[in-house]
Amino acid sequence: MARILLVEDNPLNAKLARVILERAGYRVEVAADAPEAEQSIRAMRPDLILMDLGLPGKDGYTLTHELRQAPETHDIPVLAVTSFAMKGDEQKAMEAGCSGYLTKPISRESMLREVRGLLDRSSGPDGTPRAEGI
Predict the structure, then answer these.
(1) Is residue 73 a contact partner of residue 37, using CB atoms and an 8 Å limit?
(2) What is the pLDDT of residue 133?
(3) CA dihedral 45, 6, 78, 95 (to 10 degrees)
(4) Cα 95 vs. chain centroid, distance in angstroms?
(5) Cα separations (Å) of 20 from 4, 7, 61?
(6) Which of 12, 52, 79, 130 has its CA 20 to 30 A from that of 33?
(7) What are phi and psi of 27, to 5 degrees?
(8) Cα 77–Cα 81–Cα 87 angle in degrees, nearest 5
(9) How many beta carbons lie within 10 A of that of residue 35, not counting itself?
(10) pLDDT beneath 70, residues of the chain
């Protein structure tokens, strides 16, 4: 079962995304800000991170950039899930190191399609897809 860290400061958005992902068979942890996310990443070593870019304090762009710089987290795919939908926002997310980009409000289908795609492209330590069993 793939492990997903959902970094989202809005409790309603976090609950909705968590329900969608858990019903699809994923194990989900939620972090409300960057410090919580950093702690969860160390504790669980997620297969995928869904990152809200507009976090309070350290934003999702900065956290993603830092994850890309660290040897122990540089290969974890990060899917931006954001309300930032202006021209240039997607490119800014990709430049920060995001592997994919979804705008809010999210649809169940688009979220699961993006999650499965990113998990299928990444592989576990033994070379098997991390999305097995989904």
Answers:
(1) no
(2) 35
(3) -130
(4) 16
(5) 12, 15, 24
(6) 130
(7) -90, 125
(8) 110
(9) 12
(10) 123-134
Task: Evaluate whether residue 65 is within a structural domain.
Answer: yes
Is residue 9 within 8 A of residue 126, CB to CB? The reply is no
> Rounded CA gap, 27 and 5, in Å?
9
- Beta carbons within 10 angstroms of residue 78's beta carbon: 27
Closest CA to 134 of 116, 110, 111: 116
Domain of 87, in residue numbers:
3-121
Residue 104 lies inside a defined structural domain of this protein: yes
Domain total for the chain?
1
- Residue 53 phi/psi, 5° resolution? -80, -20
Residue 129 lies in a domain: no
Give domain status of residue 25, yes or no: yes
Helices (H), 25-70: 34-44, 60-69
Q: Taking phi first (over 0 means left), then psi (-120 to 50 degrees means alpha), and beta for anything else, what does residue 113 get?
A: alpha
Residue 123 is predicted with a pLDDT of: 58
d(CA 65, CA 58): 11
